Amino acid sequence: MSSGIPLRKRLLVRLIITSVLIALCSVAATAWLAVQTTTRAIQEEQGQALADDTDILRQLSGYAATHPSWSGVQDTVRRLSATMGRRIALTTPDRKPIADSAKSHTALPPGAAATVDPLHTDTDSEPGAQLSGIDPRAVGPYRLTSKEHARLDVLAKKRQACYRRNHFETTLSWMPSGRPVLTDTGKTVKDDQAVSECEDGQVNILMPTEQTAQDELTRIVQECLRRKHVAQASSQVVSLNFSILTPQPQFGLARGTAKGLPTATGTKSDECLTDARREQLDPDVAPVAELFLGTGDSAVPHFDMSNTNKAKIVGVAGLVLALTVAVTALVATRLVRPLRALTRAAQQPPEQHVRVPVTTRDETGILALAFNELAERRERMEAQRKAMVSDIAHELRTPLTNIRGWLEVTRDGIVDPDPELLASLHEEAVLLQRVIDDLQDLAAADAGTLTLHREAVRADELLEQVAAAHRVGAEAVGIKLRRAVDAAPSLAGEGTPWLDADPVRMRQALGNLVSNAIRHTPADGTITLSVRRQDDGQVALEVADTGSGIAEEDLPSVFDRFWRAEKSRSRRTGGSGLGLSIVRQLVAAHGGTVAVTSELGAGTVFTLRLPATNPPVDAEEDR
Predict the structure, then answer these.
(1) Which range of residues forms the domain containing residue 581?
(2) Exposure pattern of 418-429 as b/e (b: 16+ CB <10 Å)?
(3) In terms of pLDDT, which residue wins out, 220 or 230?
Protein backbone atom coordinates (compact mmCIF):
# COMPACT_ATOMS: atom_id res chain seq x y z
CA MET A 1 0.00 0.00 0.00
CA SER A 2 2.72 2.46 0.98
CA SER A 3 4.84 1.61 -2.04
CA GLY A 4 2.53 3.68 -4.23
CA ILE A 5 3.04 6.84 -2.15
CA PRO A 6 6.01 9.05 -3.09
CA LEU A 7 8.67 9.15 -0.40
CA ARG A 8 8.34 12.90 0.13
CA LYS A 9 4.59 12.57 0.73
CA ARG A 10 4.70 9.76 3.30
CA LEU A 11 3.49 10.71 6.74
CA LEU A 12 6.52 9.19 8.46
CA VAL A 13 8.93 11.19 6.30
CA ARG A 14 6.95 14.38 6.82
CA LEU A 15 6.92 13.91 10.59
CA ILE A 16 10.69 13.35 10.67
CA ILE A 17 11.34 16.39 8.47
CA THR A 18 9.03 18.49 10.63
CA SER A 19 10.72 17.39 13.84
CA VAL A 20 14.18 18.11 12.39
CA LEU A 21 13.07 21.58 11.34
CA ILE A 22 11.59 22.20 14.76
CA ALA A 23 14.80 21.05 16.44
CA LEU A 24 16.91 23.27 14.17
CA CYS A 25 14.67 26.23 14.83
CA SER A 26 14.77 25.57 18.57
CA VAL A 27 18.57 25.35 18.66
CA ALA A 28 18.94 28.43 16.46
CA ALA A 29 16.36 30.38 18.46
CA THR A 30 18.05 29.48 21.75
CA ALA A 31 21.46 30.50 20.47
CA TRP A 32 20.08 33.69 18.93
CA LEU A 33 18.24 34.57 22.12
CA ALA A 34 21.38 34.07 24.20
CA VAL A 35 23.44 36.25 21.84
CA GLN A 36 20.74 38.92 21.63
CA THR A 37 20.24 39.04 25.38
CA THR A 38 23.94 39.44 26.02
CA THR A 39 24.34 41.99 23.24
CA ARG A 40 21.31 43.94 24.40
CA ALA A 41 22.66 44.16 27.92
CA ILE A 42 25.98 45.46 26.56
CA GLN A 43 24.20 47.92 24.27
CA GLU A 44 22.06 49.22 27.09
CA GLU A 45 25.19 49.84 29.12
CA GLN A 46 26.73 51.55 26.11
CA GLY A 47 23.58 53.58 25.54
CA GLN A 48 23.60 54.89 29.09
CA ALA A 49 27.25 55.88 28.70
CA LEU A 50 26.48 57.65 25.42
CA ALA A 51 23.57 59.49 27.04
CA ASP A 52 25.88 60.65 29.84
CA ASP A 53 28.50 61.73 27.30
CA THR A 54 25.87 63.72 25.38
CA ASP A 55 24.73 65.44 28.55
CA ILE A 56 28.31 66.38 29.43
CA LEU A 57 28.84 67.82 25.96
CA ARG A 58 25.55 69.74 26.14
CA GLN A 59 26.38 71.36 29.45
CA LEU A 60 29.95 72.30 28.45
CA SER A 61 28.67 73.70 25.14
CA GLY A 62 26.20 75.80 27.13
CA TYR A 63 29.02 77.11 29.28
CA ALA A 64 31.02 78.03 26.18
CA ALA A 65 27.99 79.77 24.63
CA THR A 66 27.50 82.02 27.66
CA HIS A 67 31.15 82.78 28.55
CA PRO A 68 33.80 84.47 26.43
CA SER A 69 36.55 82.20 27.86
CA TRP A 70 37.13 78.91 29.76
CA SER A 71 38.69 80.62 32.77
CA GLY A 72 36.00 79.54 35.27
CA VAL A 73 35.05 76.15 33.84
CA GLN A 74 37.07 74.08 36.37
CA ASP A 75 34.26 74.04 38.92
CA THR A 76 31.76 72.97 36.27
CA VAL A 77 34.05 70.15 35.11
CA ARG A 78 34.50 68.82 38.65
CA ARG A 79 30.76 68.96 39.33
CA LEU A 80 29.95 67.04 36.14
CA SER A 81 32.65 64.50 36.91
CA ALA A 82 31.24 63.87 40.38
CA THR A 83 27.71 63.53 38.98
CA MET A 84 28.55 61.24 36.06
CA GLY A 85 31.30 59.29 37.80
CA ARG A 86 33.71 59.81 34.90
CA ARG A 87 36.90 61.71 34.24
CA ILE A 88 36.34 64.89 32.21
CA ALA A 89 39.14 66.90 30.62
CA LEU A 90 39.13 69.97 28.36
CA THR A 91 42.11 70.99 26.23
CA THR A 92 42.87 73.36 23.39
CA PRO A 93 43.03 71.86 19.88
CA ASP A 94 46.79 71.40 20.39
CA ARG A 95 46.11 69.49 23.68
CA LYS A 96 47.03 72.27 26.05
CA PRO A 97 45.07 71.61 29.29
CA ILE A 98 42.17 73.90 30.09
CA ALA A 99 40.43 71.98 32.88
CA ASP A 100 40.65 68.41 34.19
CA SER A 101 38.75 66.54 36.89
CA ALA A 102 41.73 64.17 37.37
CA LYS A 103 45.03 64.91 38.97
CA SER A 104 47.51 66.95 36.98
CA HIS A 105 49.80 65.16 34.54
CA THR A 106 47.30 62.30 34.23
CA ALA A 107 47.54 60.82 30.74
CA LEU A 108 44.73 61.68 28.37
CA PRO A 109 42.91 59.11 26.27
CA PRO A 110 44.32 58.58 22.75
CA GLY A 111 41.47 60.42 21.08
CA ALA A 112 39.04 63.19 21.95
CA ALA A 113 35.42 62.20 22.58
CA ALA A 114 34.05 65.41 21.01
CA THR A 115 34.82 69.00 20.08
CA VAL A 116 33.17 71.74 22.15
CA ASP A 117 32.32 74.60 19.79
CA PRO A 118 29.03 76.46 20.39
CA LEU A 119 29.26 77.97 16.89
CA HIS A 120 29.48 74.52 15.27
CA THR A 121 27.42 72.32 17.55
CA ASP A 122 26.40 68.71 17.10
CA THR A 123 22.69 68.71 16.28
CA ASP A 124 22.11 66.06 18.97
CA SER A 125 23.81 67.99 21.74
CA GLU A 126 21.38 70.83 22.11
CA PRO A 127 17.79 71.20 20.77
CA GLY A 128 17.42 74.26 18.56
CA ALA A 129 20.85 74.01 16.94
CA GLN A 130 19.62 71.96 13.98
CA LEU A 131 18.92 74.92 11.71
CA SER A 132 22.30 76.66 11.68
CA GLY A 133 24.59 74.55 13.84
CA ILE A 134 24.87 77.47 16.31
CA ASP A 135 24.04 76.81 19.94
CA PRO A 136 20.85 78.80 20.67
CA ARG A 137 22.30 79.74 24.06
CA ALA A 138 24.96 81.84 22.28
CA VAL A 139 23.29 85.27 22.11
CA GLY A 140 26.26 87.67 22.35
CA PRO A 141 25.24 91.25 21.51
CA TYR A 142 21.56 90.25 21.37
CA ARG A 143 21.31 89.92 25.15
CA LEU A 144 18.75 92.43 26.42
CA THR A 145 19.46 94.94 29.11
CA SER A 146 17.60 94.65 32.41
CA LYS A 147 15.39 97.61 31.47
CA GLU A 148 14.48 96.07 28.10
CA HIS A 149 13.84 92.72 29.76
CA ALA A 150 11.51 94.28 32.32
CA ARG A 151 9.56 96.14 29.62
CA LEU A 152 9.02 92.99 27.52
CA ASP A 153 8.12 91.04 30.64
CA VAL A 154 5.27 93.45 31.40
CA LEU A 155 4.00 93.26 27.81
CA ALA A 156 4.23 89.45 27.77
CA LYS A 157 2.22 89.11 30.99
CA LYS A 158 -0.38 91.46 29.54
CA ARG A 159 -0.57 89.29 26.41
CA GLN A 160 -0.84 86.14 28.58
CA ALA A 161 -3.76 87.65 30.51
CA CYS A 162 -5.50 88.44 27.22
CA TYR A 163 -5.02 84.83 26.10
CA ARG A 164 -6.45 83.57 29.35
CA ARG A 165 -9.56 85.70 28.90
CA ASN A 166 -10.01 84.01 25.54
CA HIS A 167 -9.66 80.54 27.12
CA PHE A 168 -6.18 79.92 25.70
CA GLU A 169 -3.81 78.80 28.46
CA THR A 170 -0.06 79.48 28.09
CA THR A 171 3.09 79.35 30.21
CA LEU A 172 5.65 82.15 30.30
CA SER A 173 9.37 81.42 29.77
CA TRP A 174 12.39 83.36 28.45
CA MET A 175 14.91 82.93 25.63
CA PRO A 176 18.62 82.96 26.51
CA SER A 177 18.68 86.59 25.37
CA GLY A 178 16.01 87.51 27.95
CA ARG A 179 13.11 87.80 25.48
CA PRO A 180 9.82 86.28 26.78
CA VAL A 181 8.09 83.29 25.14
CA LEU A 182 4.51 82.08 25.71
CA THR A 183 4.03 78.32 25.25
CA ASP A 184 0.69 76.58 24.63
CA THR A 185 -0.09 74.17 27.49
CA GLY A 186 -2.15 71.96 25.16
CA LYS A 187 -5.00 71.74 27.71
CA THR A 188 -7.38 74.07 25.86
CA VAL A 189 -8.68 74.46 22.34
CA LYS A 190 -7.01 77.33 20.54
CA ASP A 191 -9.41 79.84 18.99
CA ASP A 192 -7.30 81.56 16.30
CA GLN A 193 -9.76 84.43 15.92
CA ALA A 194 -9.86 85.10 19.66
CA VAL A 195 -6.07 84.80 19.99
CA SER A 196 -5.46 87.23 17.14
CA GLU A 197 -7.24 89.92 19.16
CA CYS A 198 -4.43 89.74 21.75
CA GLU A 199 -1.56 90.04 19.26
CA ASP A 200 -0.91 93.76 19.25
CA GLY A 201 2.67 93.36 17.95
CA GLN A 202 4.30 95.30 20.81
CA VAL A 203 6.02 92.23 22.29
CA ASN A 204 7.57 91.29 18.93
CA ILE A 205 9.26 94.61 18.13
CA LEU A 206 13.07 94.83 18.28
CA MET A 207 14.64 96.39 21.32
CA PRO A 208 17.45 98.94 20.79
CA THR A 209 20.06 96.35 21.75
CA GLU A 210 18.69 93.91 19.19
CA GLN A 211 18.40 96.64 16.53
CA THR A 212 22.06 97.56 16.99
CA ALA A 213 23.12 93.92 16.73
CA GLN A 214 20.95 93.45 13.63
CA ASP A 215 22.54 96.45 11.90
CA GLU A 216 26.01 95.13 12.70
CA LEU A 217 25.02 91.71 11.31
CA THR A 218 23.72 93.35 8.12
CA ARG A 219 27.07 95.08 7.62
CA ILE A 220 28.99 91.81 8.02
CA VAL A 221 26.63 89.99 5.61
CA GLN A 222 26.99 92.72 2.95
CA GLU A 223 30.80 92.54 3.15
CA CYS A 224 30.61 88.74 2.75
CA LEU A 225 28.31 89.03 -0.27
CA ARG A 226 30.64 91.58 -1.90
CA ARG A 227 33.57 89.20 -1.41
CA LYS A 228 31.51 86.48 -3.11
CA HIS A 229 30.64 88.94 -5.94
CA VAL A 230 26.90 88.72 -5.34
CA ALA A 231 24.95 91.33 -7.30
CA GLN A 232 23.01 93.92 -5.27
CA ALA A 233 24.98 92.96 -2.17
CA SER A 234 24.47 96.39 -0.65
CA SER A 235 20.68 95.98 -0.83
CA GLN A 236 20.71 92.83 1.29
CA VAL A 237 19.56 93.45 4.85
CA VAL A 238 19.11 91.00 7.72
CA SER A 239 15.61 90.56 9.05
CA LEU A 240 15.20 89.44 12.65
CA ASN A 241 11.71 88.35 13.63
CA PHE A 242 10.32 87.22 16.94
CA SER A 243 7.06 85.42 17.66
CA ILE A 244 5.93 85.31 21.23
CA LEU A 245 4.77 81.72 20.61
CA THR A 246 8.09 80.63 19.01
CA PRO A 247 11.03 79.79 21.30
CA GLN A 248 13.77 80.78 18.76
CA PRO A 249 14.47 84.01 16.81
CA GLN A 250 14.07 83.84 13.02
CA PHE A 251 16.99 85.28 10.96
CA GLY A 252 16.59 85.97 7.25
CA LEU A 253 17.77 88.15 4.33
CA ALA A 254 15.65 90.59 2.34
CA ARG A 255 16.30 93.08 -0.46
CA GLY A 256 15.96 96.69 0.62
CA THR A 257 14.51 97.99 3.82
CA ALA A 258 10.91 98.49 2.86
CA LYS A 259 8.39 96.03 4.17
CA GLY A 260 6.97 93.55 1.71
CA LEU A 261 10.09 93.33 -0.49
CA PRO A 262 10.96 89.84 -1.68
CA THR A 263 13.25 87.70 0.43
CA ALA A 264 16.72 87.04 -0.89
CA THR A 265 17.44 83.37 -1.45
CA GLY A 266 20.38 81.36 -2.66
CA THR A 267 23.21 79.27 -1.33
CA LYS A 268 25.69 82.17 -1.14
CA SER A 269 23.22 84.34 0.76
CA ASP A 270 22.51 81.59 3.29
CA GLU A 271 26.20 80.86 3.72
CA CYS A 272 27.01 84.51 4.29
CA LEU A 273 24.22 84.87 6.86
CA THR A 274 25.45 81.85 8.84
CA ASP A 275 29.10 82.92 8.63
CA ALA A 276 28.19 86.46 9.64
CA ARG A 277 26.31 85.23 12.71
CA ARG A 278 29.32 83.16 13.78
CA GLU A 279 31.65 86.12 13.23
CA GLN A 280 29.37 88.37 15.26
CA LEU A 281 29.04 85.87 18.16
CA ASP A 282 32.69 84.77 18.20
CA PRO A 283 33.94 87.41 20.70
CA ASP A 284 31.26 86.42 23.20
CA VAL A 285 31.79 82.64 23.24
CA ALA A 286 34.64 80.51 24.55
CA PRO A 287 37.21 79.26 22.03
CA VAL A 288 37.07 75.78 20.56
CA ALA A 289 38.12 73.03 22.99
CA GLU A 290 38.60 69.24 22.83
CA LEU A 291 36.65 67.07 25.27
CA PHE A 292 38.25 63.92 26.68
CA LEU A 293 36.31 61.35 28.71
CA GLY A 294 37.78 58.48 30.72
CA THR A 295 41.39 57.34 30.96
CA GLY A 296 41.66 55.72 27.52
CA ASP A 297 39.69 54.42 24.60
CA SER A 298 37.93 51.13 25.28
CA ALA A 299 37.02 48.60 22.64
CA VAL A 300 33.38 48.43 21.60
CA PRO A 301 31.81 45.50 23.47
CA HIS A 302 30.83 42.67 21.19
CA PHE A 303 29.89 39.05 21.46
CA ASP A 304 32.73 36.67 20.70
CA MET A 305 32.70 32.88 20.62
CA SER A 306 35.76 30.66 20.88
CA ASN A 307 36.30 27.59 18.73
CA THR A 308 35.74 25.36 21.77
CA ASN A 309 32.37 26.93 22.47
CA LYS A 310 31.42 26.66 18.82
CA ALA A 311 32.29 22.95 18.87
CA LYS A 312 30.18 22.45 21.99
CA ILE A 313 27.19 24.16 20.40
CA VAL A 314 27.54 22.10 17.22
CA GLY A 315 27.84 18.88 19.26
CA VAL A 316 24.79 19.66 21.39
CA ALA A 317 22.80 20.62 18.30
CA GLY A 318 23.76 17.33 16.61
CA LEU A 319 22.77 15.33 19.69
CA VAL A 320 19.43 17.12 19.87
CA LEU A 321 18.79 16.41 16.19
CA ALA A 322 19.69 12.72 16.57
CA LEU A 323 17.40 12.28 19.57
CA THR A 324 14.64 14.17 17.78
CA VAL A 325 14.86 11.95 14.71
CA ALA A 326 14.92 8.75 16.81
CA VAL A 327 11.96 9.70 18.97
CA THR A 328 10.00 11.00 15.99
CA ALA A 329 10.63 7.79 14.03
CA LEU A 330 9.41 5.67 16.96
CA VAL A 331 6.31 7.76 17.58
CA ALA A 332 5.53 8.14 13.88
CA THR A 333 5.76 4.38 13.30
CA ARG A 334 3.25 3.72 16.08
CA LEU A 335 1.05 6.48 14.70
CA VAL A 336 1.17 5.31 11.10
CA ARG A 337 0.45 1.62 11.85
CA PRO A 338 -3.26 2.06 12.76
CA LEU A 339 -3.69 4.56 9.93
CA ARG A 340 -2.48 1.95 7.49
CA ALA A 341 -4.93 -0.55 8.98
CA LEU A 342 -7.73 1.99 8.51
CA THR A 343 -6.66 2.55 4.91
CA ARG A 344 -6.64 -1.20 4.15
CA ALA A 345 -10.10 -1.58 5.70
CA ALA A 346 -11.47 1.39 3.75
CA GLN A 347 -10.15 -0.11 0.49
CA GLN A 348 -12.08 -3.37 0.96
CA PRO A 349 -15.30 -3.96 -1.05
CA PRO A 350 -18.26 -2.08 0.48
CA GLU A 351 -20.37 -5.18 0.99
CA GLN A 352 -17.83 -6.69 3.42
CA HIS A 353 -18.21 -3.89 6.05
CA VAL A 354 -14.73 -4.53 7.47
CA ARG A 355 -13.90 -3.41 11.03
CA VAL A 356 -10.47 -2.52 12.42
CA PRO A 357 -9.10 -3.46 15.84
CA VAL A 358 -8.97 -0.69 18.45
CA THR A 359 -5.63 -0.93 20.22
CA THR A 360 -5.24 2.54 21.77
CA ARG A 361 -7.33 5.14 23.57
CA ASP A 362 -5.81 8.18 21.91
CA GLU A 363 -7.02 10.10 18.85
CA THR A 364 -6.12 7.18 16.60
CA GLY A 365 -8.20 4.82 18.74
CA ILE A 366 -11.10 7.28 18.63
CA LEU A 367 -10.73 7.39 14.85
CA ALA A 368 -10.83 3.57 14.71
CA LEU A 369 -13.95 3.52 16.88
CA ALA A 370 -15.60 6.12 14.65
CA PHE A 371 -14.66 4.06 11.60
CA ASN A 372 -16.21 0.91 13.11
CA GLU A 373 -19.36 2.81 14.08
CA LEU A 374 -19.54 4.18 10.56
CA ALA A 375 -19.22 0.67 9.16
CA GLU A 376 -22.00 -0.52 11.44
CA ARG A 377 -24.28 2.37 10.46
CA ARG A 378 -23.45 1.73 6.83
CA GLU A 379 -24.31 -1.96 7.17
CA ARG A 380 -27.52 -1.12 9.02
CA MET A 381 -28.53 1.49 6.45
CA GLU A 382 -27.79 -0.96 3.65
CA ALA A 383 -30.05 -3.52 5.32
CA GLN A 384 -32.73 -0.85 5.78
CA ARG A 385 -32.38 0.19 2.16
CA LYS A 386 -32.84 -3.36 0.96
CA ALA A 387 -35.78 -3.85 3.29
CA MET A 388 -37.33 -0.57 2.12
CA VAL A 389 -36.99 -1.53 -1.52
CA SER A 390 -38.57 -4.89 -0.75
CA ASP A 391 -41.36 -3.25 1.28
CA ILE A 392 -42.11 -0.69 -1.44
CA ALA A 393 -42.18 -3.43 -4.05
CA HIS A 394 -44.49 -5.49 -1.83
CA GLU A 395 -46.82 -2.57 -1.12
CA LEU A 396 -47.09 -1.59 -4.77
CA ARG A 397 -47.16 -5.13 -6.17
CA THR A 398 -50.26 -6.33 -4.28
CA PRO A 399 -52.72 -3.63 -5.43
CA LEU A 400 -51.23 -3.54 -8.92
CA THR A 401 -51.53 -7.34 -9.20
CA ASN A 402 -55.15 -7.21 -8.12
CA ILE A 403 -55.96 -4.38 -10.52
CA ARG A 404 -54.16 -6.08 -13.42
CA GLY A 405 -55.75 -9.48 -12.72
CA TRP A 406 -59.29 -8.18 -12.59
CA LEU A 407 -58.76 -6.00 -15.66
CA GLU A 408 -57.42 -8.98 -17.63
CA VAL A 409 -60.33 -11.30 -16.72
CA THR A 410 -62.76 -8.48 -17.48
CA ARG A 411 -61.09 -7.86 -20.85
CA ASP A 412 -61.34 -11.58 -21.66
CA GLY A 413 -65.06 -11.56 -20.82
CA ILE A 414 -64.71 -13.98 -17.93
CA VAL A 415 -66.11 -11.49 -15.43
CA ASP A 416 -68.57 -8.72 -16.03
CA PRO A 417 -67.52 -5.20 -14.86
CA ASP A 418 -70.30 -4.92 -12.28
CA PRO A 419 -70.39 -2.15 -9.66
CA GLU A 420 -68.96 -4.43 -6.98
CA LEU A 421 -65.88 -5.16 -9.13
CA LEU A 422 -65.40 -1.51 -9.98
CA ALA A 423 -65.65 -0.60 -6.29
CA SER A 424 -62.99 -3.20 -5.48
CA LEU A 425 -60.70 -1.86 -8.21
CA HIS A 426 -61.25 1.68 -6.98
CA GLU A 427 -60.36 0.64 -3.44
CA GLU A 428 -57.11 -0.90 -4.69
CA ALA A 429 -56.34 2.27 -6.69
CA VAL A 430 -57.03 4.44 -3.63
CA LEU A 431 -54.70 2.26 -1.56
CA LEU A 432 -52.02 2.56 -4.23
CA GLN A 433 -52.47 6.35 -4.35
CA ARG A 434 -52.21 6.55 -0.56
CA VAL A 435 -48.91 4.68 -0.53
CA ILE A 436 -47.53 6.97 -3.24
CA ASP A 437 -48.73 10.10 -1.43
CA ASP A 438 -47.13 8.91 1.81
CA LEU A 439 -43.84 8.27 0.02
CA GLN A 440 -44.01 11.71 -1.56
CA ASP A 441 -44.58 13.37 1.84
CA LEU A 442 -41.64 11.50 3.31
CA ALA A 443 -39.42 12.46 0.37
CA ALA A 444 -40.38 16.12 0.77
CA ALA A 445 -39.64 15.97 4.51
CA ASP A 446 -36.25 14.35 3.90
CA ALA A 447 -35.36 17.01 1.31
CA GLY A 448 -36.49 19.85 3.59
CA THR A 449 -39.09 21.04 1.07
CA LEU A 450 -42.17 20.18 3.09
CA THR A 451 -44.39 23.27 2.96
CA LEU A 452 -46.11 24.43 6.14
CA HIS A 453 -48.80 27.11 6.31
CA ARG A 454 -48.56 28.16 9.93
CA GLU A 455 -51.27 29.94 11.87
CA ALA A 456 -52.48 30.17 15.45
CA VAL A 457 -54.39 26.95 16.18
CA ARG A 458 -56.42 26.27 19.29
CA ALA A 459 -55.45 22.87 20.59
CA ASP A 460 -58.87 21.75 21.81
CA GLU A 461 -60.51 22.68 18.50
CA LEU A 462 -57.83 20.74 16.64
CA LEU A 463 -58.59 17.61 18.68
CA GLU A 464 -62.33 18.10 18.18
CA GLN A 465 -61.88 18.24 14.40
CA VAL A 466 -59.79 15.06 14.37
CA ALA A 467 -62.28 13.26 16.63
CA ALA A 468 -65.24 14.33 14.47
CA ALA A 469 -63.51 13.05 11.31
CA HIS A 470 -62.87 9.57 12.77
CA ARG A 471 -65.77 9.13 15.17
CA VAL A 472 -68.07 7.45 12.63
CA GLY A 473 -65.37 4.97 11.55
CA ALA A 474 -64.51 4.17 15.16
CA GLU A 475 -68.13 3.61 16.18
CA ALA A 476 -68.66 1.39 13.14
CA VAL A 477 -66.22 -1.15 14.62
CA GLY A 478 -67.46 -0.68 18.19
CA ILE A 479 -64.74 1.65 19.47
CA LYS A 480 -65.42 4.72 21.60
CA LEU A 481 -63.59 7.87 20.50
CA ARG A 482 -63.65 10.68 23.03
CA ARG A 483 -61.82 13.77 24.21
CA ALA A 484 -60.64 13.82 27.80
CA VAL A 485 -61.91 17.23 28.84
CA ASP A 486 -61.44 16.29 32.45
CA ALA A 487 -57.69 15.84 31.77
CA ALA A 488 -57.44 19.59 31.14
CA PRO A 489 -60.05 21.40 33.24
CA SER A 490 -59.06 24.87 31.92
CA LEU A 491 -59.26 23.80 28.32
CA ALA A 492 -62.50 25.62 27.56
CA GLY A 493 -61.66 28.73 29.53
CA GLU A 494 -58.76 31.07 30.03
CA GLY A 495 -55.40 29.38 29.53
CA THR A 496 -56.42 27.18 26.59
CA PRO A 497 -53.21 26.11 24.79
CA TRP A 498 -52.54 27.53 21.33
CA LEU A 499 -50.13 26.22 18.71
CA ASP A 500 -48.30 27.96 15.89
CA ALA A 501 -48.84 25.17 13.37
CA ASP A 502 -50.22 24.13 10.01
CA PRO A 503 -53.73 22.87 10.91
CA VAL A 504 -53.96 20.59 7.85
CA ARG A 505 -50.65 18.89 8.56
CA MET A 506 -51.43 18.55 12.28
CA ARG A 507 -54.81 16.98 11.47
CA GLN A 508 -52.93 14.61 9.15
CA ALA A 509 -50.48 13.62 11.92
CA LEU A 510 -53.17 13.15 14.57
CA GLY A 511 -55.39 11.39 12.02
CA ASN A 512 -52.62 8.88 11.29
CA LEU A 513 -52.35 8.13 15.01
CA VAL A 514 -56.11 7.75 15.42
CA SER A 515 -56.37 5.52 12.33
CA ASN A 516 -53.51 3.39 13.62
CA ALA A 517 -55.25 3.15 17.03
CA ILE A 518 -58.56 2.11 15.42
CA ARG A 519 -56.83 -0.71 13.53
CA HIS A 520 -55.18 -2.09 16.66
CA THR A 521 -58.00 -1.59 19.20
CA PRO A 522 -60.58 -4.37 19.60
CA ALA A 523 -64.34 -3.79 19.81
CA ASP A 524 -65.58 -2.16 22.99
CA GLY A 525 -62.18 -0.46 23.25
CA THR A 526 -61.57 3.26 23.83
CA ILE A 527 -59.41 5.89 22.09
CA THR A 528 -58.83 9.08 24.06
CA LEU A 529 -57.58 12.42 22.71
CA SER A 530 -56.24 14.86 25.29
CA VAL A 531 -54.15 18.03 25.52
CA ARG A 532 -52.29 19.69 28.39
CA ARG A 533 -49.91 22.59 28.88
CA GLN A 534 -46.47 21.71 30.22
CA ASP A 535 -44.18 23.74 32.47
CA ASP A 536 -41.47 24.09 29.80
CA GLY A 537 -43.69 26.16 27.50
CA GLN A 538 -44.80 23.24 25.32
CA VAL A 539 -48.16 21.68 24.61
CA ALA A 540 -48.58 17.91 24.86
CA LEU A 541 -51.14 16.24 22.57
CA GLU A 542 -51.88 12.58 23.45
CA VAL A 543 -53.61 9.77 21.57
CA ALA A 544 -54.18 6.83 23.95
CA ASP A 545 -55.88 3.53 23.11
CA THR A 546 -56.77 0.33 24.91
CA GLY A 547 -55.54 -1.87 22.09
CA SER A 548 -53.18 -4.80 21.88
CA GLY A 549 -50.09 -2.73 22.67
CA ILE A 550 -46.53 -2.98 21.36
CA ALA A 551 -43.73 -5.17 22.71
CA GLU A 552 -40.98 -3.30 24.51
CA GLU A 553 -38.28 -4.49 22.10
CA ASP A 554 -40.31 -3.15 19.16
CA LEU A 555 -40.80 0.38 20.53
CA PRO A 556 -37.54 1.79 19.02
CA SER A 557 -38.71 0.68 15.55
CA VAL A 558 -42.30 1.92 15.50
CA PHE A 559 -41.37 5.08 13.55
CA ASP A 560 -39.30 3.22 10.94
CA ARG A 561 -40.70 3.16 7.45
CA PHE A 562 -42.72 0.08 6.50
CA TRP A 563 -42.46 -1.30 10.02
CA ARG A 564 -45.45 -3.31 11.25
CA ALA A 565 -46.13 -5.13 14.41
CA GLU A 566 -47.39 -7.96 12.17
CA LYS A 567 -44.20 -9.54 10.86
CA SER A 568 -46.07 -11.28 8.07
CA ARG A 569 -46.83 -7.91 6.46
CA SER A 570 -50.48 -8.79 6.36
CA ARG A 571 -52.57 -6.05 4.82
CA ARG A 572 -55.64 -7.26 6.63
CA THR A 573 -55.65 -4.12 8.74
CA GLY A 574 -55.03 -1.88 5.72
CA GLY A 575 -51.82 -0.18 7.01
CA SER A 576 -48.90 0.71 4.69
CA GLY A 577 -46.27 1.05 7.41
CA LEU A 578 -45.63 4.73 6.59
CA GLY A 579 -48.14 6.49 8.84
CA LEU A 580 -45.98 6.73 11.95
CA SER A 581 -42.94 7.80 9.91
CA ILE A 582 -45.00 10.64 8.47
CA VAL A 583 -46.14 11.62 11.99
CA ARG A 584 -42.53 11.92 13.15
CA GLN A 585 -41.53 14.00 10.09
CA LEU A 586 -44.49 16.37 10.42
CA VAL A 587 -43.93 16.93 14.14
CA ALA A 588 -40.19 17.54 13.56
CA ALA A 589 -41.04 20.08 10.84
CA HIS A 590 -43.05 21.98 13.48
CA GLY A 591 -40.10 21.96 15.87
CA GLY A 592 -41.62 19.31 18.16
CA THR A 593 -41.03 15.72 19.22
CA VAL A 594 -43.09 12.52 19.32
CA ALA A 595 -42.78 9.70 21.85
CA VAL A 596 -44.57 6.42 22.47
CA THR A 597 -45.21 4.29 25.54
CA SER A 598 -46.98 0.95 25.41
CA GLU A 599 -47.80 -2.21 27.33
CA LEU A 600 -48.82 -5.48 25.72
CA GLY A 601 -52.52 -6.14 26.19
CA ALA A 602 -53.11 -2.78 27.92
CA GLY A 603 -52.74 -0.22 25.14
CA THR A 604 -50.48 2.44 23.64
CA VAL A 605 -50.01 6.21 24.21
CA PHE A 606 -48.48 8.50 21.54
CA THR A 607 -47.46 11.96 22.83
CA LEU A 608 -46.76 14.93 20.54
CA ARG A 609 -44.90 17.83 22.19
CA LEU A 610 -45.09 21.12 20.29
CA PRO A 611 -44.08 24.71 21.17
CA ALA A 612 -46.94 26.80 22.54
CA THR A 613 -47.78 30.28 21.26
CA ASN A 614 -49.83 33.25 22.39
CA PRO A 615 -53.46 33.43 21.28
CA PRO A 616 -54.29 35.98 18.55
CA VAL A 617 -55.67 39.38 19.51
CA ASP A 618 -59.14 38.66 18.17
CA ALA A 619 -59.33 35.50 20.30
CA GLU A 620 -58.50 37.56 23.40
CA GLU A 621 -61.23 40.06 22.54
CA ASP A 622 -63.81 37.28 22.04
CA ARG A 623 -63.14 36.03 25.53
Answers:
(1) 451-622
(2) eeeeeeebeebe
(3) 220
